[in-house]
Amino acid sequence: MRLLLAPMEGLLDFVLRDVLTRVGGADRCVSEFIRITGSLLPDKVYLRAMPELRNGSRTLAGVPVRAQLLGSDPASMADNAANLARLGPEGIDLNFGCPAKVVNRHGGGASLLQDPEQIARVVAAVRKAVPAQVPVSAKMRLGFNDRLKMIECARAMQDGGACEIVVHARTKLDGYRPPAYWEEIPRLREAVSVPVVANGEIWTVQDALRCREISGCDDLMLGRGIVADPGLALAIRAAVAQGGDAGAATLGWQELVPQVQRFWQMVCEDLEPRQRAGRLKQWLNLMRRRFPEAEAAYQEVRTQTEQRVVSAWVAALPQRDWSKG
Ligand SMILES: Cc1cc2nc3c(=O)[nH]c(=O)nc-3n(C[C@H](O)[C@H](O)[C@H](O)COP(=O)(O)O)c2cc1C
Fold it and tell me: How far is CA 143 from CA 55, 151, 190, 304, 314, in A?
């Protein structure tokens, strides 16, 4: 079983990738997307989205990171992929799932799911442009407004040379509304011979086990669920190793406090001052879903903007008595 961290623009950046891969359980990450609109991008754009390129395409904890490209023009995607390949990414992942209007209006992301032939051209152009040892993978939704072209799209990715397909089991129209339709995935898996990875709405070990059973996929991609519960990948592994016992414990809040501290330290070192407090609140906000302590922490820090105050608060977290809420 492989467990991958989902690409999440504005959320799962290199800081959180480092923290989550340090906790453990994930086999690979994907960078935030690098949008290709025509021109050849300077190296600094790739390096900004994926600082791990300076570290052998690995997080500081040593987990490989794949570079994510988003675009619809085969020639410029190929040129940029070749340029990026010089920097040594572990692989290149192509985004055919982004629902953003501004991206779709220009024919990128999920809007390509309406045009499987163009998908094949984009994948083939990128595949041809980068050295054979650099894997090219793709990520899709079930479709744009409906699922009618789902199989054609997956085959187009495979025919273009993608070595793996991640399926976020919803259409663009479904947005992020639960449920994810894991039951659609077996049909797609049967239509292609490359590995298919299931993604969408995996928040708990129970969800992961059900998703594997229903989709028939061994491999999963975890998004918001592992940000909310950083021990999720470890817990899924433990449950699968124990023959599907969903009772396997996730990491407790006390074990996460040092990770929150590390996160804050990295945010202060690497991000712009105006982004820092917001990033901490964003993560705590998602963790509220799993940890009552995160709810209490979020309420305490919610209105703080000053770095000095937040730093003092973070430093005192290990001494805080969480039993008082
Ligand atoms: C804030 C946010 C940003 C995302 N950015 C990307 C992206 O850049 N590329 C992509 O392929 N998917 C992106 N996604 C989709 C996720 O990778 C994933 O497919 C989706 O969140 C479903 O998985 P989950 O239910 O486990 O979160 C994003 C999702 C969120 C919530």
Answer: 36, 9, 17, 41, 43
DSSP 146: S
**Homologous superfamily of 3-241 in CATH?**
Aldolase class I (3.20.20.70)
Taking the centre of ligand 1 as the mean of its atom positions, its distance from the CA of residue 86, in whole angstroms, is 27
What is the model's pTM? 0.96
The residue extents of the domains of the chain are 3-241, 253-324
Report the nearest atom of ligand 1 relative to the CA of 96: 11
How large is the average pLDDT for residues 128-157?
97
Tell me, in angstroms, the distance from the centre of ligand 1 to residue 32's CA: 10
User: Is the CB of 147 inside a 6 Å radius of any atom of ligand 1?
Assistant: no
Q: Are 158 and 190 in contact (CB under 8 A)?
A: no
- The reported pLDDT for the residue numbered 40 is 95
253-324 to CATH, choices 2.40.360, 3.30.700, 1.20.225, 2.40.10: 1.20.225
Active site residues: 98
